[in-house]
């Protein structure tokens, strides 16, 4: 077999890996294992699983570095597997559950999306998905925890790459449970702020503010970024908001944010992935394009720097600078024109 055929075969066969990781997260396997070494029967009793199939599953997870097969019939979490624990400081359990239950099913309809030029019918939560989350508490919990997992990482990077200490107040627009706002407030200890989002996020946001020690400086405001934003702030932050929407809806959002920034003399900051102008065969570009395929299925899109400049202009905003984060993500600063 040629190297090209072998490489392609490996990519085709790799579909099982994210499904296995997502299954581990949904089963609560990492939380049940903790720091212990357990055999399959003992672990099966803890997570209400079939012992024989669980042993086969654990061996599969060992082959991709999630658990360690200790050779005596017991299994333990690896450093990577520890990140599937809910209580880990770098937990990705919420993101894994989100991918497995809410994103992965949509990729089965990628052919239809490419052929017809629109998101397929029937994708869970779909174009109006954020409104639907108000009526589906379980789905909302999975989605919001995934956003906490993502925001924890990129917000921590953002406050290192971009100095936010000069702002006295922040608005975390569409901020969900408010992980971004919490990181901003910890970096700017004299500042206050609020999250603007739909009602499904309020309870989780208040709980997160308390856990992060910022409850006395943070509040939740119920509302939609498609409506006029009347609450004042020195800095309007949007993390992973514009990529959720097609250009028509993104223009509506940026006009609202631009108007608020203009009214209050504020700075607009985005945390978004910036796509390369020319795509190459390399790992970071593959991750970026995976993001764009995901958003295409959900009626959103990732954008190049030039596309962000065009979009920001719709809100009478000018892209003034960027600060690089990891995995093609950036803090994008914009000011009123």
pLDDT averaged residue by residue: 91
Number of strand elements: 11
- First-to-last CA distance: 59 Å
Based on CA atoms alone, the radius of gyration comes out at 21 Å
Portion in beta strands = 15-25%
Multimeric organization: single chain
Please provide the ordered H/E string of secondary-structure elements: HHHEHHEEHHHHHEHEHEEHEHEHEE
| Total of helices | 15
Q: Helical percent range?
A: 40-55%
| Largest β-sheet summary | 8 strands, mixed
CA-based shape: globular
What is the CATH homologous superfamily assignment of the largest domain?
A: Vaccinia Virus protein VP39
Q: CATH top level of the largest domain?
A: Alpha Beta
Residue runs with pLDDT of under 50 for 5 or more positions: 124-128
CATH architecture label of the largest domain: 3-Layer(aba) Sandwich
* CATH topology heading of the largest domain: Rossmann fold
Number of discrete domains: 2
* Structural class computed from helices and strand pairing: alpha/beta
């Amino acid at each position: 077999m040629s190297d090209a055929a072998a490489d392609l075969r490996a990519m085709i066969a790799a579909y099982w890996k994210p499904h296995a990781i997502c299954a581990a997260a949904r089963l609560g396997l990492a939380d049940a294992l903790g720091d212990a070494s357990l055999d399959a029967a003992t672990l099966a009793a803890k997570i209400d699983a079939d012992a024989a199939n669980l042993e086969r599953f654990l061996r599969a997870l060992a082959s991709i570095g999630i658990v360690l097969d200790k050779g005596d019939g017991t299994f333990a979490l690896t450093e990577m597997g520890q990140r599937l624990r809910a209580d880990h400081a770098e937990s990705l359990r919420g993101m894994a559950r989100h991918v497995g239950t809410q994103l992965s099913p949509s990729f089965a309809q990628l052919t239809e999306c490419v052929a017809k030029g629109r998101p397929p019918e029937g994708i869970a939560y779909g174009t109006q998905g954020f409104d639907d989350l108000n009526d589906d508490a379980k789905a909302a919990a999975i989605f919001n925890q995934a956003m906490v997992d993502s925001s924890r990482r990129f917000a921590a990077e953002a406050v290192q790459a971009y100095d936010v200490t000069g702002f006295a107040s922040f608005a975390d627009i569409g901020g969900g449970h408010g992980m971004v706002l919490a990181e901003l407030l910890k970096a700017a200890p004299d500042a206050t702020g609020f999250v603007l989002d739909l009602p499904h996020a309020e309870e989780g946001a208040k709980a997160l503010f308390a856990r992060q020690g910022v409850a006395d400086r943070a509040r939740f405001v119920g509302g939609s970024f498609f409506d006029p934003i009347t609450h004042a702030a020195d800095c309007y932050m949007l993390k992973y908001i514009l990529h959720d929407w097609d250009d028509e809806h993104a223009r509506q959002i940026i006009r609202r944010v631009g108007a608020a920034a203009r009214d209050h003399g504020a700075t607009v900051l985005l945390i978004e992935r910036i796509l390369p102008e020319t795509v190459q065969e390399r790992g970071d570009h593959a991750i970026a394009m995976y993001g764009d395929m995901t958003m295409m299925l959900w009626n959103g899109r990732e954008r190049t720097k030039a596309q962000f400049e065009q979009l920001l202009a719709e809100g009478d905003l000018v892209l003034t600078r960027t600060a690089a984060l990891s995995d093609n993500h950036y803090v994008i600063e914009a000011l009123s024109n």
